[in-house]
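Quick illustration, no need to memorize.
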Amino acid sequence: MNRVRGRLRGDGGSIAPAVPVLALVLLLLAGLVVDAGRQLSARARAVAYAEEAARAGAAAVDLDAPDLQLLPEDQVAARVTAYCTAAAAAGAPIADPASCFRGTTSVGDPAGRPTVVRTHVDLVLPASLLGIVGVHDLRASGDGSARPFEGTREEDAR
């Protein structure tokens, strides 16, 4: 073997092709960590927005009724949509505020009247580091439900 100043001839620069590949792999791993964390956070935010939208809809109670019941579904839907639209205007990345309302269902009402408001929120966030591999949007969704409640219970007072 020919030696030039303590090295084998021909091995100079052999690490050079591996450096860009390793840098790309490290950048992709960092992108996965950062964007996966943002995705999890967006999921929690989507659930929070959906729950708040459901509460806004559940506040649409008929004050003239002798017992607790919701207003007609179109009025409940208007409250849910108004909440989602206001949240989107305030900067929430809600994909389509008009599609937050999923309907009302009857749970526990002997007369079969709708008592639970159901909502669904889709969020779309821009990807930060994964954009270099073609992933431009992070999507997250959450569901919420709420029902009007009258009075307080003993466990609520504690």
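The CA atoms of residues 41 and 140 lie 9 Å apart.
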